[in-house]
Amino acid sequence: MTVIKINVITVPRDSGDELAHRFAARAGAVDDAEGFEGFELLKPADDREQWLVITRWRDEDSFQAWLGSESFAHGHRSAAERHGEAAPKPVATHSEVWSYVVAGGSDPR
To answer: Helix, strand or coil for residue 42?
Structure first.
């Protein structure tokens, strides 16, 4: 059963472009993880400061394996850190992960 993880990241409005830039810099980093099914970064279209990072996983074990992987650790270091430089200032002020499974819906295909 697909597991959906939503990372809710609070980002001040003036830092949203930097968050998007940082995600773009590591696009595809999780694509080869066992059990990974998809990813979306959602930018607020209103006055909210919460961005949503939505990932889909085959099961909870696949997600947990990725969390414990070197790939996860590497992907969450900045490019500067990967080159031995100091980490950039964080753009987020808060983050929490929500976990869901699909309980219903439709498939227009």
So the answer is: strand
Distance CA 91, CA 99 (A): 23
- 19-35 per-position pLDDT tens digit: 999 888 887 889 999 99
Which of 74, 69, 89 lies closest to 29 in space, CA to CA?
A: 74
pLDDT digits (tens, 9 = 90+) for 34-53: 999 999 999 999 999 999 99
CA distance 20 to 25: 9
Domain boundaries, the chain: 3-101
Q: Which fold has domain 3-101?
A: Alpha-Beta Plaits (3.30.70)
| Pick from 83, 70, 1: nearest CA to 30 | 70
Q: Which strand ranges, in their side-by-side order, compose the sheet holding 36-42?
A: 36-42, 50-57, 3-10, 94-101
